[in-house]
Write a structure and sequence with these properties.
Number of helices: 14
Helix content: 40-55%
Number of strands: 12
Strand order of the largest sheet: 2-8-7-6-5-3-4
Distance between the termini: 49 Å
Shape: globular
CATH class of the largest domain: Alpha Beta
CATH topology of the largest domain: Aspartate Aminotransferase, domain 2
Strand content: 5-15%
CATH architecture of the largest domain: 3-Layer(aba) Sandwich
CATH superfamily of the largest domain: Type I PLP-dependent aspartate aminotransferase-like (Major domain)
Radius of gyration: 21 Å
Order of helices and strands: HHEHHEHEHEHEHEEEHHHEHEEEHH
Largest sheet: 7 strands, mixed
Number of domains: 2
Length: 396
């Protein structure tokens, strides 16, 4: 006898490899000690938040005795904070946004679910490029839709628009992209994004329904070597950007995110009203008030990305010395090397023998690779050096 729904029971059987490795790491740390386990499994930013976050909290504490300081507000968030966010995003996205073009959400995940509930019908399909963040599939299925992965270009992981065009059909409701990309660190080029927008315009006309372009951008702030992240909103009237404060302010547990709609969208008022509704009826009700207030005071501040750049350099040195094949990440805080021997699950187990935790590429819909999150102290990377070398040498 089971008390679980059929779908959730199946989810547990195919639970995220990221979480599996994270939990294995906890067991190893109990056995060997924290400093003897080298955990690259979870993209959990370890840097302290910017100083502006602490200043914001002190300001919030001083106003905590006021009536309704932590009360309900509009489901899409406080209007004056949305106004401030819209001005900030106008610069970032190179397009004029007003407060009615943005909504605050319970993290980027809450934003994706609120949007999906508003636009998806049972049987719809959402296309994304593989490898991809595994939770996307669950978010689609929450609303009766299905995630349909399309392989990215081999070797570069750039979007393969020819394969995408062949995959689009009458069931396609949206294309979901992520740049800078988890797990590869790729940044999609302006040329690819413009071509993607043209493709979706043509396909929307062909099928008589809008095909949404959804950009998941939590790593937008984290690009290296002077790379820029091209904006999506100016390119297409059915473009939507979703992001959060999780990575740039090291606040993943506070669950504050946002949705921004292209101002070119004729139906944006209708869609924003729907998002406010779905934010409520999905049980989020409204975004966390403390997180909104932090955003109000600290918007525009980021963690020190120079620290991530140093870790990226050291991680590359360690992998190079051991002879791994990989593409240097342009953004985010992940490496996605080829798995020696080709079997990513077997190689992840070999790394475990060295008390190193990486995530098999199979968990991202891309067997034959493995992911390493370098949002860890440089000492962890350095201590893992010999283990990476031994694991690789076992396949030479």
């Amino acid at each position: 006898m089971t008390v679980l729904s059929k779908s959730v029971g199946e989810y547990l059987n195919r639970a995220s490899w990221i979480r599996k490795m994270f939990e294995l790491g906890g067991q190893l740390k109990k056995e060997y000690g924290e400093d003897q386990v080298f955990d690259f499994s979870l993209g959990n930013p370890d840097l302290p938040p910017p100083k502006e976050v602490g200043e914001a909290l002190r300001e919030i504490a001083e106003t905590a005795s006021q009536p309704f300081a932590f009360g309900y507000m509009p489901n899409a968030g406080h209007t004056h904070i949305r106004e401030k966010l819209a001005k900030h995003l106008s610069n970032e996205q190179a397009v004029k946004l007003e407060q009615e073009d943005v909504a605050l959400t319970c993290g980027a995940a809450g934003g994706l679910n609120a949007l999906f509930r508003a636009i998806l019908n049972p049987g719809d399909e959402v296309l994304t490029f593989a490898p991809y963040f595994v939770e996307y599939g669950f978010y689609c299925e929450n609303h009766g839709a299905k995630l349909k992965p399309v392989p990215a270009k081999a070797g570069t992981f750039a979007p393969d628009l020819e394969k995408l065009e062949k995959a689009i059909d009458e069931k396609t409701a949206a294309v979901l992209i992520n740049s800078p990309h988890n797990p590869t660190g790729v940044i999609y080029s302006a040329a690819d994004l413009k071509a993607l927008a043209r493709l979706l315009e043509n396909k929307s006309q062909q099928y008589g329904r809008p095909i949404w372009l959804i950009a998941d951008e939590p790593y937008r702030f984290l690009a290296y070597d002077g790379a820029g992240v091209p904006p999506v909103l100016p390119l297409y009237q059915y473009a939507v950007v979703i992001s959060s404060l999780s990575k740039n302010m090291s606040m993943p547990g506070e669950r504050v995110g946002y949705i921004a709609l292209s101002p070119k969208m004729r139906e944006k008022k209708e869609l924003m009203a729907a998002i406010a509704l779905t934010n409520r009826i999905l049980g989020f009700v409204n975004p966390p008030v403390i997180g909104q207030r932090i955003l109000e005071y600290a918007l525009g501040s980021n963690v020190d990305i120079g620290i991530y750049a140093k870790r990226r350099k050291l991680m590359a040195e360690v992998l190079d010395a051991a002879g791994y094949e990989y593409q240097m990440p342009m953004g985010a805080f992940y490496f996605f090397p080829k798995a020696p021997g080709g079997d990513d699950v077997a190689f992840a187990r070999r790394l475990l023998e060295e008390r190193i935790l990486g995530v098999p590429g199979s968990g991202f819909g891309c067997p034959g690779y493995f992911r390493l999150a370098f949002c860890v102290d440089e000492s962890v990377i350095e201590k893992a050096r010999d283990g990476f070398a031994r694991a690789k040498a076992a396949y030479d």
